[in-house]
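Students often ask why we bother encoding 3D structure as a string. The short answer is that it lets us treat folding as translation between two languages. Here is a chain of 242 residues written in the first language.
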Amino acid sequence: MAKNVLITGGTKGIGKAVAICLAKAGYDLLLTWYTDTIDEIQTTLTACKSFGVSVTLLEADISNKQSIEDISKLILAESIEFEAIVFNAGLTYRDAFENMELTEWERVFFANVHFPVFLLQQIVGRIKPAGSVIFTGSLMGIEPHATSLSYGVTKSAVHALTKNLVKFLTPYHIRVNAIAPGFVDTDWQKNKPQEIRRNIEDKLAIGRFCTPEELADVYKLLIENQYINGEIIVVDGGYSYQ
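And here it is in the second language, the structure alphabet:
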């Protein structure tokens, strides 16, 4: 019997690593994408399909409410039932505090908080009992974020959302957790100047960035472990211990 997982932002970065990890474990995938290049999408598609699973791709802008309807319509039309929903896609906004614009602030809040809430509202009935909802939070939702105020605040909201949703998803027999990654060696981090990378590594007890594959294993754990519920799993390599 097919095991299905939806991953938003599933064709690059953390989402790509999670998709490949779950494909290797035999999960069929529905992956949304938006700003990815054709090469990025094709690389992820080829890697996942090499494990013999089904992969469906859907373009979806998480800052546009129409995407909620687009995703839910596809799911209902195909009668897909899910083992897990992974809300991974997110936005940031890095203008200085003095230059922030309300429209961009609201766009980040819609993408990171409103979008997953109202998509989940639409598709919660398509998640199997004992299924799992996983949010990608952030260490920056716990530690002060000096680069993007909207990102840090919305990721804090994602953590609070995770805790509060436990009450609302219990009647469906669905678990909900979040992962708060620290510094993960995605393309975004690899392109940082070496001096900045070394400064970050000096703050990590393990002394290096997390690999996307190490982080993906935690998502798989939260899907398959039936007792973890309402938790914010911090994966930061001991950021606060250096």
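Translate back mentally: The mean pLDDT is 94. Keep this in mind for the problem set.
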